[in-house]
């Protein structure tokens, strides 16, 4: 007998891409870059394909890749994670997030997500047996903010962990050191773990990224999740990682070896080469500045169409106020898709079903698209208004 149907069917991201394609809309829904990955990465892949990387590799990840991951975060963290005991390569950030939940949560624990939140967090936490509690971030004229008093108020003796994401999907917030210090203090006071999703760490436009694990006392209690997906524009290569204390890493790896065993080996090998090169070149800086220009193009087009955008300080996304388009964000996204031919995702999709009603009427648009795609979206918005 089949178990009860899943709470969610097709993901909102896959659904939006499918519908945008069917309707010939400009797809600013799903967050994936539509340009070629950097040449250094493609040529590294061509090279590794002729070498001996076609079989299982070491389950924790290729040593060379783990070493360069550790080296690449050393300055921001203020310590160098031990590649052998603290770095694990996974199948995208998604697997790292799944494993963090599976490794840390015990049935009946409470886990906090900061809403709006990437939908995967609640799903993997629930599967691990957690009761998921949403704590809202707050919209402000300069972007979205974390109020650590609200976070503290949501903690109970059963709280086990907090999931945080900075730079943030979907709001474009880059949490400040002060905000994260507040969060760290809550974690220390209630003896919590923090799962910090930092996949957009290289994509900040006007304020620095602060890794949670860099704050005093947080190295031992933080799982830092990263990925090559966004930094190297290869969301399909499925290579991510988790950085955590040796004790937590042992637990993560115990799950990893029975879930995927090892991340795809040719892609790990090619990414190691590209990350080594990126350390030396200005690659990360150029990537951020190119995305910043794209953010400006899309934000200006939204503003001109009367869909006032929030300031995005990092990441791939900007939120547009859709109160003048339709009474709810879902209806607004539908109208923009079918009448204007521009696909975005209703902000309400990033809230738990229990908090959905409190989601502002806004639609998320991705600006990680080629200039001509953004220009076409701008043209359609302009023609509509
Ligand atoms: N975290 C965030 C905040 C994301 O936006 C995404 C998806 N783009 C992921 C994790 C998943 O990353 P990956 O594709 O590396 O699994
Ligand atoms: N993270 C991407 C987004 O927010 C989507 C990832 C996915 O489709 N799995 O759009």
Automatic annotation (TrEMBL):
<protein>
    <submittedName>
        <fullName>Succinyldiaminopimelate aminotransferase</fullName>
    </submittedName>
</protein>
<dbReference type="InterPro" id="IPR051326">
    <property type="entry name" value="Kynurenine-oxoglutarate_AT"/>
</dbReference>
<keyword id="KW-0663">Pyridoxal phosphate</keyword>
<dbReference type="Pfam" id="PF00155">
    <property type="entry name" value="Aminotran_1_2"/>
</dbReference>
<keyword id="KW-0032">Aminotransferase</keyword>
<feature type="domain" description="Aminotransferase class I/classII large">
    <location>
        <begin position="26"/>
        <end position="381"/>
    </location>
</feature>
<dbReference type="InterPro" id="IPR015422">
    <property type="entry name" value="PyrdxlP-dep_Trfase_small"/>
</dbReference>
<keyword id="KW-0808">Transferase</keyword>
<dbReference type="GO" id="GO:0016212">
    <property type="term" value="F:kynurenine-oxoglutarate transaminase activity"/>
</dbReference>
<dbReference type="GO" id="GO:0030170">
    <property type="term" value="F:pyridoxal phosphate binding"/>
</dbReference>
<dbReference type="InterPro" id="IPR004839">
    <property type="entry name" value="Aminotransferase_I/II_large"/>
</dbReference>
<comment type="similarity">
    <text>Belongs to the class-I pyridoxal-phosphate-dependent aminotransferase family.</text>
</comment>
<dbReference type="InterPro" id="IPR015421">
    <property type="entry name" value="PyrdxlP-dep_Trfase_major"/>
</dbReference>
<dbReference type="InterPro" id="IPR015424">
    <property type="entry name" value="PyrdxlP-dep_Trfase"/>
</dbReference>
<dbReference type="GO" id="GO:0005737">
    <property type="term" value="C:cytoplasm"/>
</dbReference>
């Amino acid at each position: 007998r089949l178990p009860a149907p899943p709470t969610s069917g097709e993901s909102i991201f896959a659904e939006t891409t499918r519908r945008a394609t069917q309707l010939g809309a400009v797809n600013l829904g799903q967050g994936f870059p539509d340009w070629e990955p950097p040449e250094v990465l493609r040529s590294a892949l061509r090279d590794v394909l002729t070498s001996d990387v076609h079989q299982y590799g070491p389950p924790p990840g290729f040593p060379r890749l783990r070493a360069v991951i550790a080296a690449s975060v050393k300055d921001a963290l203020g310590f160098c994670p031990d590649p052998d005991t603290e770095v694990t390569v996974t199948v995208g950030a998604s697997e790292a997030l799944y494993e963090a939940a599976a490794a840390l949560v015990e049935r009946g624990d409470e886990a906090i997500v900061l809403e709006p939140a990437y939908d995967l967090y609640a799903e993997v936490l629930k599967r691990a047996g957690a009761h998921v509690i949403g704590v809202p971030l707050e919209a402000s004229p300069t972007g979205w903010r974390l109020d650590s008093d609200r976070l503290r108020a949501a903690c109970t003796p059963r709280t086990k962990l907090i999931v945080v994401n900075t730079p943030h999907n979907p709001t474009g917030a880059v949490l400040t050191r002060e905000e994260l210090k507040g969060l760290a203090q809550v974690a220390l006071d209630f003896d919590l773990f923090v799962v910090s999703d930092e996949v957009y760490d290289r994509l900040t436009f006007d304020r620095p990224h602060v890794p949670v694990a860099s704050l005093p006392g947080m190295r031992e209690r933080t799982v830092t999740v990263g990925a090559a997906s966004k930094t190297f524009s290869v969301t399909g290569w499925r290579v991510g990682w988790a950085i955590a204390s040796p004790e937590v890493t042992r637990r993560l790896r115990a799950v990893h070896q029975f879930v995927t065993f090892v991340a795809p080996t040719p892609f790990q090998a090619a990414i190691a080469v590209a990350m080594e090169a990126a350390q030396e070149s200005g690659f990360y800086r150029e990537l951020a500045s190119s995305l910043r220009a794209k953010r400006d193009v899309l934000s200006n087009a939204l503003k001109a169409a009367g869909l006032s955008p929030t300031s995005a300080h990092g990441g791939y996304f900007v939120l547009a106020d859709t109160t003048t388009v339709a009474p709810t964000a879902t209806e607004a996204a539908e109208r923009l898709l079918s009448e204007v031919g521009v696909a975005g995702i209703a902000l309400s999709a990033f809230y738990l079903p229990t908090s959905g009603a409190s989601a502002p009427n806004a639609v998320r648009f991705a600006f990680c698209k080629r200039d001509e795609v953004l220009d076409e979206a701008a043209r359609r918005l302009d023609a509509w208004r």
